[in-house]
Write a structure and sequence with these properties.
Number of helices: 16
Bound molecules: uracil, calcium ion
Largest sheet: 4 strands, mixed
Distance between the termini: 34 Å
Low-confidence stretches: none
Radius of gyration: 22 Å
Structural class: alpha/beta
Strand content: 15-25%
Length: about 425
């Protein structure tokens, strides 16, 4: 087989066979095929698209390029959840104990990430003593006993995707639905999930700004998942404003505690119930989505969900007393209120700008090695549709810096306050099954 023939075949719009795709992925992972040939192929794929079989074959070739997590020692149907990312997305911290409280095994591998705030692992590390490094047998044992454990990413998962993603980044080929879908799904499948619930975000703060693009990506991922024998569904949800009210690591842990007790912000609460019901249903713990939702509401109401969060924290060495006394979490030295400059209704909150404001305080990493300040971040006091008076607080800044003038400026720019009537912002756009 010659790489040049494979590039020409795709350039001319023909579908590649499984053997050809395996040849490319193996050869590239082993440094036998050079970057320039894979760049040319990526550009051909970008323009010529890929069939469903090609997408599944590419995904599985990337899965097989490295380690695969074996969760077969864990009882039950392991359901994983993935979000395409956004600002202030606290859902994993809530969903993991929430569905575990119903007996759904949550064997979660999570990242740190380079976003506006840390990843789930960083957020958990704002709990004193919490261990994110567990060996395989301990991890499996904890999930079997408590139905929940979360570890930091380790091992050599999907090296082909790592290499290809970096190459796409510098060859203007990131923005391709089949390539994005295969990239994300390869990582989920290599992590060992039996079933997958995807939260595909759309809006100004999302990777997919446009609803139709988000739907196409969701459909592509669902097809790959189901094609690879993993029951997969996708929820399309809004990211035109940050999710919930808290953006920051310890602040989001506090928000997760409130939400698990049924006192969370309306949008975060609703999204967790929507995603959670899909997870419970796929794990075969309810006979319908409606039934799953009732069960989840029950465990929030009865206190079982928050008890599960305590058990989870304690079993990984963390200080579970933060649940009853969140003041034990890292706290910033200064709280500064950002005031509305005029009266009216909030019509827009540019999520990306709010994220940047949080990262300027030190809530996120600028580079792979930078340190996160777990205590800092933002708490929104007004969301889209809320009425606001001039001089009223729209956001509280939690900072360890004294001078936050630039952060205030950023927040003022992110908010639009208008004189007209309130607008409503949709949260869930659709659920994609196939
Ligand atoms: N996120 C991924 O993991 N891969 C992509 O290709 C794009 C976004
Ligand atoms: Ca939040």
């Amino acid at each position: 087989m010659r790489m040049v023939d494979i590039i020409a075949k795709k350039r001319d719009g023909k579908a590649l066979t499984k053997e050809e795709i395996d040849f490319v992925v193996e050869g590239y992972t082993n440094d036998e095929i050079p970057d320039y040939q894979v760049s040319a192929l990526a550009m051909a794929l970008y323009f010529q698209d890929m069939t469903k079989d090609e997408r599944v074959n590419l995904t599985m070739a990337m899965v097989e390029s490295g380690d695969q997590i074996d969760l077969s020692d864990i009882d039950g149907i392991k359901v994983d959840k993935h979000s395409t990312g956004g600002v202030g997305d606290t859902t994993t911290l809530i969903l993991a104990p929430l569905v575990a409280a119903l007996g759904v095994p949550v064997a979660k591998m999570s990242g740190r990430g380079l976003g506006h705030t840390g990843g789930t692992i960083d957020k958990l590390e704002s709990i004193e003593g919490f261990q994110v490094e567990l060996d395989g047998p301990t991890f499996n044992k904890l999930v079997n006993e408590n139905k929940i454990a979360v570890v930091g990413q380790s091992g050599n998962l999907t090296p082909a995707d790592k290499k290809l993603y970096s190459l796409r980044d510098v060859t203007a080929t990131v923005n391709s639905i089949p390539l994005i879908a295969s990239s994300i799904m390869s990582k989920k499948i290599a992590s060992g999930a039996d079933a997958i619930v995807l939260d595909v975000k759309t809006g100004s703060g999302a990777f997919m700004k446009d609803l139709d693009d988000a739907k196409a990506l969701a459909k592509a991922m669902v097809e790959i998942g189901n094609g690879a024998g993993r029951n997969t569904i996708a929820v399309i949800s809004d990211m035109n404003q940050p999710l919930g009210l808290a953006i920051g690591n310890a602040l989001e842990v506090k928000e997760a505690i409130d939400t698990l007790q049924g006192n969370g912000p309306a949008d975060l609460h609703e999204l967790c119930l929507t995603l959670g019901s899909q997870m419970v249903y796929l794990a075969d713990k309810a006979d319908s989505i409606e039934h799953a939702r009732e069960l989840l509401e029950d465990v929030m109401r009865s206190g079982k969900a928050i008890e599960k969060f305590k058990t989870f924290i304690a079993s990984q060495g963390g200080d579970a007393s933060i649940v009853d006394d969140p003041s034990r979490l890292p706290t910033a030295a200064n709280q500064i209120e950002v005031k509305a400059k005029k009266s009216g209704y909030v019509t827009e909150i540019i999520a990306d700008e709010i994220g940047v404001a949080a990262s300027m305080l030190g809530a996120g990493r600028m580079t792979k090695d930078s340190e996160i300040d777990l205590a800092v971040g933002l708490v929104l006091k007004k969301k889209i549709g809320d009425a606001v008076q001039e001089g009223e607080t729209i956001v509280t800044i939690h900072s360890n810096q004294e001078n936050v003038d630039e952060v205030i400026e950023k927040i003022q720019q992110a908010y639009t306050i208008d004189g007209k009537s309130p607008i409503t912002n949709e949260l869930i756009y659709s659920v994609i099954h196939s």
